Structure prediction request, 157 residues.
Amino acid sequence: MTSLGILLLLSGAALVVVEAHVPTLGALGVPGVLALVAGSVLVVSGVGGGLAAVLAVSFVLALCSVSALALVLRKGTAARRRRVRTGAEGLVGQLGVVRSWGERGGRVLLEGTLWRARRAWPDVDDEELQEGDVVVVERLSGLTLAVRGAEEWERLA
Prediction:
């Protein structure tokens, strides 16, 4: 029984560690906690511990592992809610400044980098973009930004 308890303790600890690195929203962490508690019951009773010792060790181990799992789940869900700030997805919504603009598109300075740009909605009859206008990135197609003129409230934000 003791060897089975040690095996359960090791596998439970491994599942909790994997849950910390691969946020599965508790799919691996909950069975890990259960395996830790069951393993502790088997190990303590296998080495001759009484009922009080079994309950005390199991309760303390369950409390510690549930607390750690709750922390991991809270941090994991918070990380999933965060807005992407890097890569192509991170450029959407950013403000840039028109450096040059022609009939088919132009160049926009965005975060210190000069990008090729075109209008996000070419069929809209808005005023033509001029050098120095502030624009908002709507999407990214390859290395070309699709932009629109920024509204007043976007410039102030």
